[in-house]
Amino acid sequence: MATMDQPPLNWEASDAPNNPTISATLPPEVVECLRNARFLHLATCTSTYPHISLMSYTYLPSTPFASSPTIIMTTNPSSRKTLNLIQNPHVSILVHDWVSSRTGNTTSPERERRPSSSIASMLLGLNSAALGRISATITGIARVLESGSEEEKWCKSQHVESHGFKESAVDDGPDSPTGTEHTSGGGFLQGEDVRVVVVRVQEGRIADWKGGVKDFVIRDEGEVQTAPLVNGVA
After folding, report:
1. Among 58-67, 156-165, 219-228, which range has the highest average pLDDT?
2. pLDDT digits (tens, 9 = 90+) for 137-150
3. Model-wide pTM > 0.90
4. Contact 204, 30 (CB under 8 A)
5. Three-state DSSP class for 176?
6. CA 182/CA 173 separation, integer angstroms
């Protein structure tokens, strides 16, 4: 029988659409995941080298400037991520609402002698109960907003309000220009040159811990609902 620490080894073809749901809004489980998670992983790319950043974010179902689901982040203008986005606006995002601990899958004598962590056991127990069991891979188009624009001011204010951090808070970690952007305090806003990034969600895939997958596509209301590309595949 499958358990949280020994999930079933089901395999789902990930290179083809899986009867995608087409809607103007995100699936409820993705919305819940975005509202529960503290950080997301943002993948940008230029040439052949992808770059991953751990980001604070604000999710909004729509804004005065876009009717589609939007994710707001802030970034150092000289970071590798920002430079990537300017050259290539296509991004991929991973967000999940679980915590996990690697257990019992190594033959290391040191690990075998190490007692099981009660905290890890508790988290695994919570995981299997009510905290959530999905991850969502989201693809979209990112824009680095024009400094001083009304959209930038509005999105920055929403980001500040969402996280409750001050204008003087710093969160650029070692990412300038090669590391991972993250924060120990909740967010990043620093100086007038900070750039605001918005991602318009286009499509995505929900995966659960059992190996099941479900695709979704975002289309504006009134758009022709034609068969879309899902995860880049017709």
Report:
1. 58-67
2. 999 999 999 999 99
3. no
4. yes
5. coil
6. 6
151-204, pLDDT tens digit by residue?
A: 999 999 999 998 875 544 434 444 444 344 444 344 455 556 789 999 999 999
Beta strand 70-75 with 49-56: parallel, antiparallel or unpaired? unpaired
**Local structure of 213: helix, strand or coil:** strand
Distances 141 to 10, 65, 146 between C-alpha atoms, Å: 31, 15, 16
Report phi then psi at 86, rounded to 5: -65, -35
Average pLDDT, rounded, for the chain: 76
Q: Which residues pair with 181 in a beta bridge?
A: none
Contacts of 49 (CB under 8 A, 6+ apart): none
Query: How far is Cα of residue 110 from the mean position of the Cα atoms in its chain?
Result: 34
**Nearest-angstrom CA–CA distance, 166 and 188:** 9
In the predicted model, what is the mean pLDDT of residues 97-124? 56
> What single-letter DSSP state applies at residue 80?
H
Bond preceding residue 7 cis, omega within 30 of 0: no
Beta strand extents in 20-152 (DSSP E only): 21-23, 39-46, 49-56, 58-60, 70-75, 90-96, 134-144
Going by the DSSP 8-state scheme, the letter that residue 116 receives in this structure is P
With tokens 């919305």, the residue in question is 31
Cα gap 159→187, rounded to integer Å? 9
